[in-house]
Design goal:
Length: about 100
């Protein structure tokens, strides 16, 4: 497939780290879900379930596409990406809170 609209380094990275590239968009999803459902805590079950459903729908949708096949590890990496995104938001929230408390 021709991906001339993407930088070469990104195409190479995506080809080398096939499983990891699944987690990358879910980092942002986890970050956003944490803001929406539990902005002061580390984990939200609603956000986790929502992201799990999104991953299942995305992987299940591959049954409908030619030359695509769903992978269980994509589900695992998607969920892990969400958890890391939630944790990153929590750490960002704590650091911001500490910095503002010192002023």
């Amino acid at each position: 497939m021709n991906q001339s609209y993407l930088p070469r380094w990104l195409v190479y990275w995506a080809d080398v780290y096939v499983q990891l590239r699944t987690a990358v968009p879910f980092l942002a999803i986890g970050f956003i879900l944490q803001i929406l459902f539990n902005p002061r805590g580390f984990f939200t079950l609603k956000g986790f379930v929502f992201s799990f459903l999104v991953v299942l729908i995305a992987e299940g949708g591959q049954f409908l596409l030619p030359y695509r096949h769903p992978d269980v590890m994509d589900i695992v990496f998607g969920v892990l990406g969400t958890l890391v995104g939630m944790f990153f938001y929590y750490q960002t929230f704590k650091i911001r809170h500490l910095l503002l408390a010192k002023k």
